[in-house]
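Dear H.,

Thanks for agreeing to be a second pair of eyes. The structure we're designing against is below in token form, covering all 92 positions.
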């Protein structure tokens, strides 16, 4: 079974190899509850992704609300299970 940490690592490697892109993992603790797993920018466009392992689509109400706030502020957001979904959301 694929672990979420492995999916995050693959996505970060992909993103940080794109020209004009910087992305980082948000490490969960009591101060960052609900924040997306990955945030970054691509050519000035902010993005925020909640990462789930393949087959898992369970997003908490707090995660949903936080992604909505990022989206309302102009960020590209989504729940992703791998780099192909990230590519599609970012249009790369």
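And this is the sequence the design step returned. I haven't edited it by hand at all.
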């Amino acid at each position: 079974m694929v672990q979420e940490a492995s999916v995050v690592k693959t996505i970060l490697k992909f993103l940080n190899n794109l020209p004009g892109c910087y992305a980082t993992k948000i490490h969960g603790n009591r101060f960052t509850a609900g924040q997306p797993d990955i945030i970054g920018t691509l050519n000035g466009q902010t993005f925020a992704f909640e990462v789930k392992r393949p087959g898992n689509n369970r997003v908490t109400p707090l995660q949903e609300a936080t992604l909505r706030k990022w989206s309302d502020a102009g960020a590209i957001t989504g729940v992703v299970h791998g780099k192909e979904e990230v590519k599609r959301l970012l249009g790369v």
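Two observations from my side: Strands lie at 21-25, 38-42, 45-51, 76-80. Residues 37 and 50 are 5 Å apart (CA to CA).

Warmly,
E.
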